[in-house]
Amino acid sequence: MCAAPKQGQNLPAGVDVEKETVLTGQVTDSAGSPVAGAFVRLLDSTGEFTAEVVASPTGDFRFFAAPGTWTLRALSSVGNGDTTVSPEGPGVHTRDITVAK
């Protein structure tokens, strides 16, 4: 089966995690199963929409952002959920999102 690579594991060539802030994770349901195709939104500290990606077939997502406080919100037919991440500097910052009705 052909599918997108797990975004949380392999970053694109040329990404310098000592200079870039990467927010990554996986969308799962309450049983821990991946939620493919969820819309994952990146909201800034005031709740303003910044970006959106579609989770991979394995529920993975990735954003490149600046240090600060961010909300990651997942919307799917399985349910919705969100989490907050506050990276203080560059690197890979992982936060999974559990969705529920």
TrEMBL record:
<dbReference type="Pfam" id="PF07210">
    <property type="entry name" value="DUF1416"/>
</dbReference>
<keyword id="KW-1017">Isopeptide bond</keyword>
<dbReference type="InterPro" id="IPR008969">
    <property type="entry name" value="CarboxyPept-like_regulatory"/>
</dbReference>
<protein>
    <submittedName>
        <fullName>DUF1416 domain-containing protein</fullName>
    </submittedName>
</protein>
<feature type="region of interest" description="Disordered">
    <location>
        <begin position="80"/>
        <end position="101"/>
    </location>
</feature>
<keyword id="KW-0832">Ubl conjugation</keyword>
<dbReference type="InterPro" id="IPR010814">
    <property type="entry name" value="DUF1416"/>
</dbReference>
